[in-house]
Write a structure and sequence with these properties.
Length: about 90
């Protein structure tokens, strides 16, 4: 099995280990709890920074206070929210 296949399987195991309320999109807007936390913290940081861009490392530091995820998982969430990820 290749390294990328092992990485993909490890990500799938982590995803399925999450509580169901973090994985299933809400029927009102299609966002998961993790996506909602990311957007909320992004908005808070943008306001604190006077509308300037938010470094992903700073966003990650805020998001992990509310949900447990890796930097790579945050990048995938950001890509999906920006319309560049899978599942859209």
């Amino acid at each position: 099995m290749s390294d990328s296949e092992q990485d993909r399987r490890a990500r799938a195991r982590r995803l399925h280990a999450r509580p169901i309320d973090e994985r299933v999109p809400d029927v009102r807007d299609g966002l998961t709890r993790i996506e909602r936390v990311v957007l909320w913290q992004l908005r808070e940081l943008e306001q604190e920074r006077g509308g300037r861009a938010v470094p992903s490392a700073q966003l990650y530091g805020r998001v992990v206070e509310y949900v447990n995820l890796t930097p790579g998982e945050l990048q995938r969430v950001l890509a999906r929210l920006a319309g560049r990820g899978h599942g859209l």
